[in-house]
Design a protein that fits this description.
Elements: H1 2-13, H2 18-24, H3 28-43, H4 48-60, H5 65-77, H6 80-90, H7 92-115, H8 124-131, H9 144-176, H10 182-189, H11 196-204, H12 211-223, H13 228-240, H14 243-249, H15 255-279
Helix pairs in contact: 1-4, 1-9, 3-5, 3-7, 4-5, 4-14, 5-7, 5-13, 6-7, 6-12, 7-15, 9-14, 11-13, 12-13, 13-15
Length: 280
């Protein structure tokens, strides 16, 4: 998936350089880009690790960083499979509210991250890639064969830098996939203390499973009396963040940018948890 996405974006980049892409998406168009990217994430059945290759391809193609974050957040968190399963567990009203909250978090968090001007916290090789020339010839004079060559060069350069970490991240994910200490989670989620929501988010981040894997766990926790808002905040953190995802992203983003990304998105999870607990 990573090689295919990088190849396609590399070929497209021969027509649309990062500078041209940013110019197209500037101003009002960029504002529309955040909800469009979040909507694309909602419609694609990707888990967090599956979303990362497309995120890398979009970033390397010069798509604004905030817009790509909107996709990265929405993809695993409010994908169609998870929403369908959640509908069966909690009913259409709460599932719809969850969709609205997830879409809003992805859009707003992407917008906030985009306005913070965080491109300087991309890894050096990504910034050099975006700043470098597309090819040896002017864009409009490249033949189709030369554009294909550019795509292959992008695969060699980008995949060559990150493939080992993709393997490491997915291997770690395979080892911890679906592991949730239910007894500990029940102690956190059945309490009414203010700290139960942030504790659920913090505990959920190191775990790794997709929406299909976490919904049965959510159903079990709710059946044993866990608070709905706390459980949904936990669910969001499990499927939107994961240790494997962070390992792969580290090859594109610096630690500081990863920390900012986690902090901004976690704020949305906390707001969701507290609001659901307050309302319901």
């Amino acid at each position: 998936m990573l090689a295919a996405i990088v190849f396609v974006t590399g070929v497209l980049r021969s027509w649309f350089s990062p500078e041209k892409t940013r110019a197209i998406l500037a101003g009002k168009r960029e504002i529309a880009g955040y909800p469009l990217a979040a909507a694309l994430g909602v419609l694609t059945p990707f888990c967090s690790c599956s979303s990362v290759p497309l995120f890398i391809g979009l970033v390397s193609a010069g798509i604004p960083l905030g817009v790509t974050f909107s996709f990265l957040i929405a993809g695993p968190m409010v994908g169609p499979l998870g929403l369908g399963l959640l509908y069966g567990v909690v009913g259409w009203k709460i599932a719809t509210i969850y969709l609205v909250f997830g879409f809003t978090i992805a859009t707003v968090a992407g917008f906030v991250l985009g306005k913070l001007g965080l491109e300087r916290y991309l890894q050096d090789w990504v910034r050099k890639l975006n700043a470098g020339p597309v090819g040896d010839l002017p864009e409009e004079r490249l033949t189709f064969a030369e554009r294909l060559r550019i795509g292959l060069e992008q695969v060699r350069e980008i995949v060559g830098k990150v493939w080992i970490w993709v393997v490491v991240g997915i291997s770690i994910g395979a080892l911890i996939h679906g592991y949730v200490p239910e007894a500990m989670m029940l102690r956190i989620m059945c309490g009414e203390a203010w700290w139960s929501v942030p504790a659920a988010v913090v505990v959920g981040v190191p775990m790794y499973t997709n929406a299909a894997g976490v919904i049965p766990i959510v159903e079990a926790l709710l059946g044993k009396g866990a608070a709905l808002g706390t459980t949904l905040a936990f669910m969001m953190s499990v499927i939107a963040f994961s240790l494997p995802e962070m390992i792969i992203l580290k090859q594109v983003l610096t630690y500081r940018l990863i920390a900012i990304f986690i902090a901004v998105v976690s704020a949305g999870f906390l707001a969701t948890g507290f609001l659901f607990n307050f309302i319901l």
